[in-house]
Specification:
- The chain is α+β, with helices and mostly antiparallel strands.
- Among the domains are: 4-118, no CATH class; 482-584, ANL, C-terminal domain (GMP Synthetase, Chain A, domain 3).
- Helix content is 29%, strand content 20%.
- It has 16 helices and 25 strands.
- Strands 8-7-9-10-11-12-13-18-17 form a nine-stranded mixed β-sheet. A four-stranded antiparallel β-sheet has the order 1-4-3-2, with helices on one face. Strands 14-15-16-19 form a four-stranded antiparallel β-sheet, with no helix packed on it.
- Helix 9 (251-268) packs across helix 10 (287-298) and helix 11 packs across helix 12 (333-346).
- The longest helix is centred in the N-terminal third of the chain and has 19 residues, at 151-169.
- The protein is globular.
Length: 590
């Protein structure tokens, strides 16, 4: 409701403008219904044919006039007030500001009906944008503020946001049941320091909930019914082991999906006017959507949504990149190497001719940076590593110093826990990553073990100026770990060994089998490794790889050399989704 006090504050602000450009006195007769409260992100906003909202004098290019405008403190006090300018108001002086007159009563009624009387869940009316952006700064503001906060200030922010999340989560049946069963009561959680009292859950618990309460589970409190009150977006997990797991996004969740990725782009060096190519399909998978929204909505970067190689063949991807001036590419390492190969073999060109600013990728367990070096040599630009899941979007990213991936500390609280005990481990110790997404309300996430193995490597200030903690490379998944003769083996840990010899393509696939000999059971792992067509010889390659894998994995494995391209199908290479690296055949019927 617009009060007389609000009107008076606005009149005071307009009075301050009069020294710069006179305003007719008819404003003082403005009625409350002629005032709307909206974002002050622009000095004036055109609101449909022939109508204008007045937010204040728009500064001209004159430095003197700009200083006059900047000295008006009233505009910092009127709290998102924009005034409907009626046709009876004259234009402000030309060249000093813009006020579009001749607004008809029909236009006014139409706008009021659309903005105030609609029963439809219009996306752009579903957020309190000023509050959202105040809490979640856009990339350049973020880099100058939150990104550089002290650890104590970061912790205080996390604590405040965590307690707000807990208030919402206590109303969710999924958490009520789990926390009640663990003997936790609302009064037990007084700060983020008490988070360890809450039980951890996994994606399997969400799947069980959705199976018992189809289709989305009680963790989605409102489910489809929520569509009646606000827009929703649905994204899913990869579904490589069964039916994809659906996750709902409300407007705040969806905006954070793009905003967090935009921050990474900005800090890595992307700027308005760049062209960013996204060779991933915007589907139920979340990856391409994150990049697209980050570029388009928050960076002023032109997103080229070329989709995967199935949508736009690799040759055409490259033709587009060369023709339309691509400056940044975001893709998985396997496809980036494929693009470089196609450029050389089919176009007779070197991808370094593109002179990219940088590549964004997901390097996985590239602990010795051999994969990074290969890509940087191929493309002639920096390669930055990232980590994310479909629930949280971008969770961590490298800055330009490439000294670990910074957690997005203001958006998600990260813990690393022992895979067996669930207890937090010290920095430098590998464990499962547990996430609490501080902004999520549509499907709240509180202490979800995503079962990705990482280490918190740095808690000190980075050379970039940020105290946001840094994680190691993604080391593999604890749920894809196999126990081989008493040793935990992670298939992703093969990467460094496989890439240690330039005769390989860098691709591999693991099979685990159980053999019985003379009544004794023995589990064995066979690792198929592709060899380049251009390799001069395979002499000693099998033996060298077996020795290196033994050293890295801590257990002996067998290596089988296969031709280049032989693993494309089984490992899902160069296609939509992540590569597959393991097939455990021990429990398959013979």
């Amino acid at each position: 409701m617009v009060t007389e006090r609000m009107l008076q504050r606005t009149r005071t602000a307009i009075s301050a403008v009069s020294a710069t450009a006179p305003v007719t006195s008819s404003f003082n007769q403005a009625r409350p219904r002629e005032i709307a409260f909206m974002s002050r992100s622009r000095a004036s906003l055109r609101m449909g044919r022939g109508s204008t909202l007045f937010a204040g004098v728009k500064p001209t290019r004159s430095n003197g006039r700009r200083r006059q405008f900047d000295r008006l403190p009233s505009f910092q006090k009127i709290d998102w007030v924009l005034i409907f300018v009626d046709a009876s108001l004259s234009s402000l002086e030309t060249g000093r500001s813009r006020v579009v007159n001749k607004r008809s009563r029909e236009d006014t009624m139409l706008q009021e009906e659309q903005q105030a009387a609609t029963a439809l869940p219009i996306y752009h009316l579903s957020l309190d944008w000023p509050s959202f952006l105040a809490e979640n700064p856009v990339p350049d503001v973020f880099e100058r503020t939150m990104w550089r906060w002290s650890p104590d200030r970061i912790r205080a922010m996390q604590n405040e946001r965590f307690l707000k999340l807990m208030t919402a989560a206590w109303g969710n049946p999924f958490y009520q049941k789990r926390w009640g069963a663990a003997g936790v009561e609302p009064g037990d959680i007084k700060s983020i320091d008490d988070i360890v009292k809450l039980p951890i859950f996994t994606s399997e618990d969400i799947k069980d909930d959705q199976a018992a309460n189809p289709p989305f589970g009680v963790i989605h409190t409102e489910g489809i019914a929520g569509l009646g009150s606000e827009p929703r977006k649905l994204q899913t997990s990869g579904g490589t082991t069964g039916m994809p797991r659906p996750t709902m996004f409300g407007p705040i969740e969806w905006e954070m999906n793009g905003l967090t990725f935009a921050r990474g782009i900005y800090i890595q060096g992307g700027r308005p006017g760049d062209v960013q190519q996204i060779p991933a399909t915007a589907s139920l998978a979340n990856f391409a959507w994150c990049v697209y929204k980050g570029c388009h909505d928050y960076m002023g970067i032109l997103p080229l949504t070329t989709g995967s190689g199935i949508v736009t063949p690799s040759r055409r991807q490259l033709e587009i990149a060369f023709a339309w001036g691509t400056r940044i590419i975001t893709s998985f390492p396997e496809y980036l190497t494929q693009l470089a190969k196609v450029a050389r073999d089919e176009l007779g060109r070197d991808v370094r001719e593109l002179k990219l600013r940088f590549l964004q990728s997901f390097l996985g367990p590239d602990v010795d940076n051999s994969l990074r070096k290969q890509l940087e040599d191929l493309w002639g630009c920096p390669v930055y590593d990232h980590y994310g899941t479909h629930e949280l979007g971008l969770g961590a990213f490298e800055c330009q110093h490439q000294s670990g991936m910074h957690f997005m500390e203001d958006a998600t609280y990260f813990e690393v826990v022992d895979p067996d005990t669930g207890m937090p481990v010290a920095p430098g110790v590998a464990g499962d990553l547990v996430v609490t997404i501080l902004y999520r309300r549509v499907l709240p996430i509180v202490r979800m073990n995503v079962r990705d193995l990482v280490r918190i490597e740095h808690t000190d200030r980075c050379a970039c100026g940020s105290h946001y903690r840094r994680m190691s490379k993604f080391l593999g998944r604890s749920d894809s770990m196999v126990k081989l003769r008493g040793t935990n083996v992670y298939p992703m840990a093969c990467l460094s060994a496989v890439k240690s010899d330039p005769r390989t393509t860098g691709e591999w696939f693991c099979y685990v089998d159980r053999h019985t000999r003379d009544g004794a059971i023995r589990d064995e792992m066979l690792i198929q490794i592709e060899v380049r067509k251009t390799a001069d010889s395979r002499t000693g390659l099998k033996e060298n790889l077996e020795r290196r894998l033994h050293a890295d994995l801590g257990v002996r494995v067998d290596v089988e050399l296969v031709d280049e391209g032989a693993l494309t199908e089984i490992a899902n290479l160069g296609r939509e989704g992540k590569p597959r690296r393991l097939m455990d055949r021990r429990n398959l019927r013979k």
